[in-house]
Amino acid sequence: MPRGSAELTLARREEIISACEKLYLTMSFKEITLKDIAGATSFTRTSIYNYFQTKEEIFLALMQKEYESWIRELNSLTDDHPSLSLDDLASALAHTLEKRGMLLKLLSMNHFDMEENSRPECLREFKTAYGDSIEALRRCIAKFCPHMDAGAQQNFLYAFLPFLYGIYPYTTVTGKQRQAMADAGMHFVYMSVYDIAYNSIRTLLQSTAS
Predict the structure, then answer these.
(1) Which residues contact 50 (CB under 8 A, 6 or more apart)?
(2) What secondary structure letter does DSSP report for 30?
(3) Residue 210 has pLDDT above 80, yes or no
(4) Calpha distance 157→141 (Å, rounded)
(5) CA 27, CA 77: separation in Å to the nearest integer?
(6) How many angstroms separate the Cα of 169 from the Cα of each of 67, 104, 105, 128?
(7) Which end of the chain is less crowded, N or C, counting CB atoms within 10 A of the terminal residue's CB?
(8) How high is the mean pLDDT of the chain?
């Protein structure tokens, strides 16, 4: 770790993560290299190794940042409303996911590689954020669905969390994919993140609450 203040270290980490995020908007995970990321920062590739050892660690830190933003929004949702109907809760949760396009993309792409090629300490920090997101979601469900016991809450979480991994591919379709489906005579219904999330969350809340 480089010498300097904690603020400088945090600022440089954030610069690296932000550079990775910007590149990921137009490049694929496989295309992006540490050289590319360094080129989008104010310092050298060698300096990056003071903060991250692999590009997977940078992507994992980006996903951790996304989870932390989602946690803050989930906690605000829980704290700012005395009660919500199942419809309103499903809509509110869907809106939080609507804003988390980067998280949904990261979840659907190379998640296993990110974790497998990161040091234990990096993985531990990420898992802390991931665990906190589950707790924030559980807290939200517990408040707005008081009729759901601990078992029903757990059933919802174990159905909802794997669902997150599949949202991005169903809501983001390339021109190449559209043409292939058209050529195959495939009827594909295009839905927004909000629409697919709301419908699925509402169904899950109803089924696990009964």
Answers:
(1) 1, 2
(2) T
(3) no
(4) 9
(5) 33
(6) 19, 9, 8, 26
(7) N
(8) 93
Helix (H, G, I), strand (E, B) or coil at 4: coil
Which residue type sits at 151? Answer: G
Distance of CA 84 to the CA centre of its chain: 24
**pLDDT tens-place string over residues 62-88:** 999 999 999 999 999 999 999 999 999
This prediction's pTM: 0.92
Position 162, amino acid: P
Confidence of residue 2 (pLDDT cuts 50, 70, 90): very low
Residue 118: other Cβ atoms inside 10 A: 23
The predicted-structure confidence for 151-194, as pLDDT tens digits, reads as follows 999 999 999 999 999 999 999 988 899 899 999 999 888 899 99
Side chain identity, residue 1 = M
Cβ-based burial of 136 (10 A; exposed 0-12, middle 13-18, buried ≥19): buried
* 31-52 tens-digit pLDDT: 999 999 999 998 888 889 999 9
pLDDT of residue 3: 52
Q: Which domains does the chain have, with CATH numbers?
A: 1-51 (1.10.10), 56-209 (1.10.357.10)
Do the Cβ atoms of 156 and 205 come closer than 8 Å?
yes
CA distance 55 to 65: 15
With CA atoms as reference, report the closest residue to 24 among 62, 65, 53, 74: 62
